[in-house]
Amino acid sequence: MSDHPHLLSPVKIGPVDIRNRIVSSAYQTNLGEAYRPTDRMIAYHAERARGGVGLIVLEGIRCHPTTRPARFNLTAWDREAIPSFRALVDEVHRHGAKVFAQLLHLGRAANPMETRLPLWSASQISAPTVFGSHRSVQTHAMTAAEIVELCDWYALCARNMIEAGFDGLEIHAGHGYLIQQFLSPLTNMRNDDYGGDLRSRARIAIEVVDAVRGEIGSDGAFGVRISADELVPGGLTTADMTRVARWLEDTNQIDYMSVSQGTTEAYSHARQIPDMSFPPAPFVHFAEEIKSALSRVPVFAVCRIVDPDVAESIIAEGKADLVCMARAHIAEPHIGLKLAEGRATDIRQCIGCNQGCAGRINAGQTVGCLVNAEAGRELELGSIVAAPKAKTVVIVGGGPAGMEAARVAALRGHRVTLFEQARSLGGQLNTLVRAPHRKEFAKFADWLTRQLDSLGVNVILGVSADVSRIRREEPEAVIVATGSVPTLPKLTGVHGSPIEAISIDDVLHGRADAASVVVLLDDDGHHKAASTAEYLAAAGAVVHLVTRAESVAAEITSVSRTLAVERLEAAGVIIHTGRWFREALGSKVVLEAMGRGDLDEIPDANFIVAAVPNERRAYLAEQLRGAPDFPEVSVVGDCLAPRRVIEAVREGHLAARAL
Hints:
Largest sheet: 8 strands, parallel, barrel
Strand content: 15-25%
Radius of gyration: 27 Å
Oligomer: single chain
CATH class of the largest domain: Alpha Beta
Helix content: 25-40%
Strand order of the largest sheet: 3-4-6-9-10-11-12-13
CATH superfamily of the largest domain: Aldolase class I
Distance between the termini: 40 Å
């Protein structure tokens, strides 16, 4: 019997039979082109269908020209695109999963640079700055005729998607998008039939539901995604949305309800895609409350459900009927299959870093994943297959790049020996996890360690492999993943002063006195400095965080940056933006304003901590490349160029595929 019987049990949504309770809910992939699915998008979702997911809800498909997206997103009104959608549906069906289409109008959250039209909304209000718009951009309050037009377009798009073969449809009425803009008292100031009390504000949601169901009849399942709480003062509450959920169920037109949370205000938006600073399933209580208020339709639980044991308990305890595991499936496409085969420990869990998914998507790039180098590249890379010839491979360095290279090389049938000079695998991850809210990285290191053990990789710890030691293994290929080391910049006046200059690594290994004044120089802009500032503040230090940039933590993707800044402010970290170190005068640190020359002083400093780029450890790679008896040498990760973990993992993966 499975350890996850409730999660793997079949379920019926309207007329649609689904093989288990696992849902890959809608999220943007940027894998489209010309507003329709591509072969890359089809391969991406087919891999998750092959991996045993029960239901895929395809990313938000725009339903009207006033919400036209960038070309790599999808629209539903062009009938010429139906064959492209049908190709995706057919491929998902071939692997036994079902697939729904989510219809979406962003309202004021649309990009007017793409639509070249006024932003539609319930009232004249400012566009949300969380998506890069300016508050001077005002929306157009929709007329009654435009609301009728909107319903007609929803119906048109719904019919197109059913013709394309989708098993069902979902209307997105949450996350601060158009329908929620009508529901919310924060964005609906109308005094007609669509404004005023909650029932009137909910009218458009019911009319859209009626229009879609009226168009598709009994052809397919039909559900609504809502935000159960806007998480902002004066916004929609769970009590409000419980009433709305009942009204939607009472239409007898819908077959399920997907329960998320949040809106487009920065504080709330950061909690739509919570990172590793949150516990698993932090908002499942919203689904539980909505479910308890409904009598007929199944409820989907949403948000950071990444652990199958947690997902199983949600279903078993009756908190929801299905669980949405979106980021979990970016990290691990084969959750359902591995659970069914009793291989739960082989599941590569999402760590909630938000770097390859939200980070890349927000930057206009295709979906990716820090822990899964194949995510978004399924078409180009294909499955890992046995190498034409098994080779003896030596990998030097047991950080994320080296471990991923060893895993993939072993999967391809190579004989792999991995050298690591430390007494444990993990490399810089072992330091990283000492920082607050970064401990999830240990899950990835542990998973890689288990994989190497199960694949029979010969791991040699505590040995700093030089050319002669490597030569003894008689390798046919060598992958160098020796990483990088912290450096300190030249700091005028520090030498001979009472101020000690140390690295981030020094701090996280406890080498800074907690009862001290610390000046943290952030030339990184990512979690390295922000998390270290939190660490020091929690230990009792007075922390001055200094950055040349005009905003702190500028390199962190927006949803996680909001959370990081909240924590820095709560910890009392003193932030100096647009400034940099000039000199130390005794125990004073002098800062200079960038481009202006204004000077500030921080008195009584004990430490300067430098969050600056590391220096690559390239000596071994250079020696091997100069030796004639090592014809195949690859260099990956930080020893090639110091960057972030996501690049290290990708390069290790690709190097092993190329052997």
